[in-house]
Amino acid sequence: MLITVGDDTATFDAFDQSSQVHTTIPCDTSEPGQVLLPHRTLHDVVAKLPDKPITITHMGSAAQFTCGPRTFELPPMTLDDYPPLPDMPPAVGTIDWSDLAAAIREVGAAAGRDDTLPMLTGIKVDSHDGALTLAATDRFRLAHTTLPWDGDDLDMLIPARDILTLARTTWHGDVTIHHDQRRLGFTLGDTRTILRLIDADFPKWRPLIPKDSDTTIRIDRKTMADAVKFTSVLAGDTGQVVLSITSGQVTIASKTAQDGAGEEVIACDTVGNELNIAFTSRYLLDALAGDGTALMTFTQPGRPAMVWPDLPCEEGKVPDADRGHLLMPVRLPG
Where is it predominantly found (predicted)? Predict the structure, then answer.
């Protein structure tokens, strides 16, 4: 990390092959200067310091940090080894950071983690008709959501790991989005971040969303999530739970020869055919995250199911929704 101290500000810069962060904060300065330090060690030590002001002293052979009763020193790195910082891409629009970060967290859970399939390790972002759409999939589930957007047209694949880390940042207000063919940038006040985009083709996901349903239920998200957590304890290594939908209720169950069996019955609104269908519990829990009521639509035991917001829905159809979670079922036990 490069620390640059001016008359009344301290600037922090760090970047690697995939991302770059730059931020400036006010400080009391006795003498301007610049020091390059190993960021991982610096981060880990500073995280253990008390919530008090930090005094930084550069003594040539070491940078000394004092915070309350604690003091530590780090050997500086050679400034000539630090490459020049890249320029920010052109600005393309602004968006509320809280809304964007929530959307990133919502879809990012569905992104793949297999680096041998780079097209699945990202969040697809594109814009059309005044809407910014985010989507992610790992082949077993797919999440998508939409935000209002009045900026330039966008079409990019963002590394999910990097953008999810950024989404934990507690920024407030509108951020400026920057974009070119290779990079995505964010600016808010004196902080800016640049991420390198993934150069791969994301699957055409929109045709995968079911247009019809044979079975529909409306159920409280927390009630069903608690039932899934309970039964999945007895699901063994597979982590699979079975949903048995009958008139006015759904039974969530699991059974393995080694771990035993468990089930919970929940009353809910049901429309359409009775159905038995199985899912990986972790994926189902991700789709149920949040508060309120979920609308779930199903067709056949071997075909994708959807978890939607609580929206109006005609019998036999799916709602007109700009966000949802697609879940691929697993084979029913036995």
Answer: cytoplasm
